[in-house]
Structures are given as C-alpha cells and as structure tokens.
Amino acid sequence: MVAVRIEELQKVFGAFQALNGLNLTVEEGAVFGFLGPNGAGKTTTIRILTGLAYASSGHTWVIGKEVPANGQEIARYIGYLPEEPAFYPWMTPREFLDYVGRVFGLTATERSSRIKELLALAGLEEAAKRRIGGFSRGMRQRLALAQALLNRPEVLFLDEPASALDPEGRKEVLNFIESLRGQCTVFMSTHILADVERVCDTIGIINRGKLVIADSRESLLSKYAIPAFEVEVDAQTENGIITWCNALQQESWVKSALLQGLVARIVVSDVELAKRELLASITQAGLILARYEIVRPSLEDIFLQLVNQEEKQQ
C-alpha cells in the first residue's frame, strides 16, 4: 500500500518556485529519508502534505486520501514534528502530553496509558515531573517526537529532526526514530546525509524543487558504487593539500573532491586512471603522504554526484 503519493506538485512564492513538478511515492511502513540541500523544497513539501500549506498546483495523497480536500480527517492519522517545535515551558512533559491528548479527543484512560508508554519510549520517565523549560535540546526534541506519536499516527512527518542537536542529542533522537520501524511510516526530511544513511531504508533526493532520484538505500549504494579514494597527508603539508584538492577538482576524471582537515575524499569516474594519476599528482604537489586508501562510497558521495549531474542538466 502507498502511504504518500505526490503528482506534479508545484509551489510558487512570488517569483520563487519552491517546488517544480515534484513526483514521489512512499510505500507504507518505510522509514523514508527526504534528502536535499537547504532550500531544496523539503519543508514546503511536508507542510503541503500535512495540510499546513496549499500547493499552487498538483496533487498529494496521504493514506489514500487527497490533501487538502480531506485535511481534517487526515490530521487524525498523521503525526508532525516541525523543525522548531514549541512548548509551554512551565508545563511538565506529562502535562504537555495530556494537553495534546485532549486536543485529539482521547479519554482520560487512553491519555494516561499512552503518556506512560511514550515517556518510556522517549526516555523521559525520570523527567516526567520536571518543567520543560529546563530541558536540554535533545530532551525537548524527544518530547516533541512523543507528542507527534500520541495519536498513534499511520504516517509520521519529521522536518529536520536532528539538525540542531549536539552529537549526543542527535544519537538519542536517531535511536528514537529507529525504534519506530514497523510501527508507522516515517517521512523524514533532512540535509544531514549521515542521519539518512543510519536510519532510513528508502531515500528520495530533491534539488531545486524536483525529485532527482528515489530508491532503497542499498540500491543507491549498489548502483553508484564507484570506489572513492581517501588521501591523508602529514600536518607539515596542510596548506599544500588545500591547493592540491582545488586543482584536482578541475580534472575531467574527478567527480568530487572533499577536504576535511588533512584528509581528502575523491570520487572519480575512471578508477584505473585515478590509480595512476592520483599518486603522481601527490608527488608533484610535494605532499607527505600519511595514508592512501580505496574505500566504499558513502551516501554523501552519491548525493553529491547526483545533485551535480542534475545541476549540469539545467
């Protein structure tokens, strides 16, 4: 069964086209990663799917019902976590979830049972009587996830759920999202590729309001499994690797060259040519080599490759 379907979706803000004929299908039960750079149209898409914004043209369906025609009905079957969730800071988590439960029309018995269950799932049992205003960002995000799950949604929409968190908070939230596998369909937008690679089983890449590709994570890694090269140099040649990496990106056989500190990660179109040319160019640049390795491509490599191809075609 299809949980989310989008056909020829367009959204225009004045002279800016946020969505440009977006087409997408998400199967029921998937943990779907909606991946794209900032400004690609991810939040706009989620707002339209949840009935919080109207499309300029096109059609969207959630659990088989068209949005926004059935917006009020759909609201009972979906959960939504915005990028910046808001709380009443003087409330405790229990009070806040009870308030949300009342909005959904849950009985006192249903609220009590569900709140107990969600506080345990979110790891907030010991903080249940503390004021939300004193929570860390990670705790608030887990509480926001709990409220989005209160009505047992069939589809859960998450907008950049871990983007503003520190490493510990991000780990907590991603573990929470991972625990939802099999309970509902998760539609998660993000620009953080490592998060998608960790928790999502299917991925859609969007750029400039258009879908670039949608496929399973393993299929994407398999289809575009061009090996990458990692080059690490000694700290003595730190300045030299910056110049070398910039020059390398001009070569026709180089798809991308990313530099992080003293390590350069190079994705190529011709592996055999790269094996010959890379070491020669390192020697010519006078770099002191600490490590040279051929590695399996990451989702980040594939993302950059596909987005760059799409940009060149426009």
Task: Write down the domain tally.
Answer: 2
The coarse overall form would be: globular
- Output the strand order for the largest sheet: 6-7-8-3-9-10
Radius of gyration: 23 Å
Number of strands: 14
For the record, the CATH class of the largest domain is Alpha Beta
Following the backbone from N to C, one meets helices and strands in this order, namely EEEHEEHEHHHEHEHEEHEHEEHEH
Report the β-strand fraction as a percent range. 25-35%
- Overall average residue pLDDT: 89
Helicity, in percent?
25-40%
State the assembly state of the protein chains. single chain
Please, could you describe this protein's structure?
Helix 6 (about 165-180) links the parallel strand 7 (about 155-160) and strand 8 (about 185-190). The protein has a six-stranded mixed beta sheet, sandwiched between helices. A four-stranded antiparallel beta sheet has the order 2-1-4-5, with helices on one face. A four-stranded antiparallel beta sheet has the order 12-13-11-14, sandwiched between helices. The mean pLDDT is about 90. The protein starts with a strand and ends with a helix. The chain has eleven helices and 14 strands. Helix content is about 35%, strand content about 30%. It has two domains: about 1-215, P-loop containing nucleotide triphosphate hydrolases (Rossmann fold), CATH 3.40.50; about 225-295, Alpha-Beta Plaits, CATH 3.30.70. It has helices spanning about 40-50, 70-75, 95-105, 110-120, 135-150, 165-180, 195-200, 215-225, 240-250, 270-285, 300-314; strands at about 1-15, 15-25, 30-35, 55-60, 65, 80, 155-160, 185-190, 200-205, 210-215, 230-235, 255-260, 265-270, 290-295. By secondary structure, it is of the alpha/beta class.
